[in-house]
Design brief:
The chain is of the alpha/beta class and 455 residues long. 38% of the residues lie in helices and 16% in strands. The strands form 3 sheets. The chain has a 7-stranded mixed β-sheet, with helices on both faces. Strands 11, 12, 13, 15 and 16 form a 5-stranded antiparallel β-sheet that branches. Helix 3 packs antiparallel against helix 10, helix 4 packs across helix 10 and helix 11 runs parallel beside helix 13.
Length: 455
């Protein structure tokens, strides 16, 4: 898809108005309010967006890895407009055509035996409700989640989260225990091969199950590919091993596909690339590129049947909102018409991976590159031998300056990056032109010289 934009007009008066309203009245998430200065965005198209000062940015983060079909996709916009003209909203207790159609389409691309979809407003409440289903189905309470994870900001989802965003919100749901997932580059198990990492990570998980008490554990929730916390692709056999442990100990396996579902790695759901089938699948983001908030849980028939005669104690006023579902139906049509899954696999293997391998060879600050499709991480280090991170874990302020310098260099060159801790993530919209994809990688390549100075 080619960006349908001309040179954006400069409007400094509008820039000042937007800044004043934002700084005066908007309370931003995950931020110290006086220490931020959000960029006023005037518009966007395709893989780019622009500000009121005339600067255009190639969106190499898909905003928050949710804008899979890019800014202002005409098919999604038209679907929302048409639905708004026909039926803008309806309560979830009533049947609705686009809600039912989207649920059917999601079920059709899920594995066999997943016939029902529960809609939510986003990823956090998808995970929240998946856990609620697992607890009701098993009659058990405890949930296991990885330390390197992010599952959302509702009370149970933030308890599941392993990264530092959990700390300030404790205690929340006390029935959560964390474990170490596989991370071959920084193996917590001192493994030297991917196979060894898999074996030792599964042994650790089984020990955790035994010590926490299998009879107390309702579910294990795993981001199929860990997202914000590292783009950690599971080594061969790991997810299949998790599935076997869940079967053996009577535990529900929840696949968090909020970030990697709907094409991010070239599959409808990322777990489909790893020969494994979970019990519950959570989704959001790419299901309709966030044009209207939407998430949900795809439920295996075995668990759905439990609620045939037992009421599910959960619900949301805007569950399956018609405007959101209309954009979701249009998303399926675009994916199928334009071969989105195929082009993501092609661009990832033919363009992104070889270029990132080349970048890693040339930059002493690059310790590791990893990913699939259009979802990659560049891990930055001070020392390739010791693998000391370029910035400390959970760095902020001056401690984070080296990675901030890389991000600033990218933005100056017209690319909006996704950075987290000591990593630069590559996650552009799935409709990005190949030329723009190459240009973005070129900009990152140049910007990494700022990190090399700290090696």
């Amino acid at each position: 898809m080619t960006d349908t934009l001309t040179d954006p007009l400069t409007d400094l008066d509008a820039d000042a108005r937007v800044r004043a309203d934002d700084r005066g009245h908007v309370f931003h998430s995950w931020s110290a309010q006086a220490l931020i200065d959000p960029l006023p965005v005037a518009g966007g198209a395709g893989a780019s967006f622009w500000d009121y000062a005339g600067h255009t940015y190639l969106d190499f983060s898909s905003q928050l890895v949710n804008l899979n079909l890019g800014h202002q996709h005409p098919d999604l916009v038209a679907a929302i407009q048409q639905q708004a003209g026909r039926l803008a909203t309806i309560q979830p207790a009533l049947a609705n055509d686009v809600r039912g159609e989207l649920a059917r389409r999601i079920s059709e691309v899920a594995p066999d035996g997943f016939g029902k979809v529960f809609f939510t407003n986003g990823g956090a409440d998808a995970n929240e409700n998946a856990v609620r289903m697992a607890r009701a189905f098993t009659g058990k309470r405890k949930v296991l989640a990885m330390y390197r994870s992010y599952h959302g900001n509702t009370s149970t989802a933030i308890a599941l989260t392993g990264d530092p965003r959990r700390w300030a919100n404790e205690p929340s749901d006390g029935s959560v225990a964390h474990f170490f997932g596989p991370y071959p580059y920084r193996s917590p198990f001192h493994a030297t091969t991917p196979e060894e990492e898999t074996a030792r990570a599964l042994e650790h998980l089984e020990q955790t199950i035994v010590l926490e008490g299998a009879q107390t554990i309702a579910a294990i929730i795993i981001e199929t590919i860990v997202g914000t916390n590292g783009v950690l692709v599971p080594p061969p056999g790991y997810l299949a091993g998790v599935r076997e442990l869940c079967d053996r100990y009577g535990i529900v396996y929840i696949a968090d596909e909020v970030m990697v579902g709907f094409g991010r790695i070239g599959e409808w759901f990322a777990f489909q690339a790893f020969d494994v089938v979970p019990d519950l699948i959570t989704f959001a983001k790419g299901v309709n590129s966030g044009y209207v908030p939407l998430g949900g849980v795809v439920i295996s028939d075995r668990i759905a049947a439990h609620f045939d005669t037992v009421s599910f104690q959960g619900g949301l006023t805007y569950s399956g909102h018609p405007l959101a579902c209309a954009a979701g139906v249009a998303t399926f049509e675009v994916f199928e018409r334009d071969g989105i899954l195929e082009r993501v696999r092609d661009l990832g293997s033919r363009v992104v991976e070889p270029r990132l391998r080349e970048i890693a060879r040339r930059h002493p600050s690059v310790g590791d590159v990893r990913g699939r499709g259009l979802f990659w991480a560049i891990e930055l280090v001070k020392d390739a031998e010791t693998r000391e991170p370029l910035v400390p874990f959970n760095a902020s302020g001056q401690d984070a300056a080296p990675v901030a310098a890389v991000a600033a260099a990218c933005k100056k060159a017209g690319v909006w990056p996704f950075t987290h801790f000591n990593r630069v993530h590559v996650a552009p919209p799935l409709i990005i032109d190949e030329a723009d994809l190459v240009r973005g990688l070129d900009v990152i390549d140049t910007a990494l010289h700022a990190a090399d100075e700290y090696v």
